[in-house]
Amino acid sequence: MTDRKDLHDETRLVHSGRHPEEHAGAVNPPVYHVSTVLFPSVAALDAAVRDRLEPKLYYGRYGTPTSFALEEAIAALEGGSKCVATSSGLAAICATLCAFLKAGDHLLMVDSVYAPTRKFCDGVLRNFGVETTYYDPSLGSAIKDLMRPNTRVVFVESPGSLTFEVQDVPAIAAAAHAGGALVVMDNTWGTPLFFKPFAHGVDVSVQAATKYVVGHADAMLGTVTVASEAHWQAVKNTVLAFGYSAGAQECYLGLRGLRTLSVRLERHQSNGLALAEWLAGRPEVARVLHPALPGDPGHALWKRDFLGACGLFGVELRPASAQAVASMLDGLELFGMGFSWGGYESLILPTGDSIHRTAIRWRAAGPMLRLHVGLENVEDLKTDLAAGFARLTA
Ligand SMILES: *Cc1c(COP(=O)(O)O)cnc(C)c1O
User: What is the pLDDT of residues 206-220, one digit of tens each?
Assistant: First the structure.
């Protein structure tokens, strides 16, 4: 089923990774609660050791039929060949970087990257002898000037965390490949539906499945998808070396979320766009950072490369005091304040203090917010925000 190229994404979402015949006919694979797997003979034990990277039960950390099902489905949807599930999105990123970098290597990292990824580069990777150079997210093929003989990985995240710059991934990939480097992408915003990494030159695609794949704010999960067997082995062995394996219950929740991803994303997209357009017309708002809005600096690239937009975007308010912003946010009834995103519920977060840049300066005249627009009725969300604006300007 998974390898039928004629099927559309909505159909793949429903059917990929499902093998009811292996689970007594149950529609969904059960959660395998397992650490120890028993073998009936020395010969069977020896064979299991030899085949331990196969999708078969060997030892809990190596995966279970629940994680194999999730990996099969995600790989099919992203357009890769194989996937490794991990215990969180950050674990997926760190395992990938460690799989392809060693002491003496150089990493090109986008300046608008998710902050904990930056922290990993500046801390752990630096201590282990890997040098990171941060680059301007607006660089396309000009990234070739930053390539060094020892540049092994070029990391992209598009749109960028908090600031939503869209990158020219195919141009970056061409320059990276010409210099002998791999392209790793954090594809969490694009999801397996709205950005097809392998069709745009990416070699390794990482997802914080915690966000839209799980989709209900109730599990931590990551995935790493690759196109080649060699890359898969490198990632799988690193995940095993660190013990970053995903829990079976989390994989089950990821699979369950995946089945409804297309209908959820459709609503996240339409609600997000409606709210972004409404916000762009508000006098309290200086600008909206949403690549699907025609005026956005990243709009042309988004339109060329993406198949849709999720419900996450940024807002820069006109100058206002911290106290006024707090009274706006504190009184919101439908928008929750908290980290992460991609669940069914709307969220809002002040982000100005969290934007760190070293390659280019980030300039905002007023307070920055990040919105995640959930599945609520969008008129109710506008009413909630309008009351917030009234408190902001009171
Ligand atoms: C949340 C997030 C991550 C990390 O995922 P966790 O599951 O929270 O570890 C990585 N990248 C992006 C873009 C994210 O938003």
Answer: 999 999 999 999 999
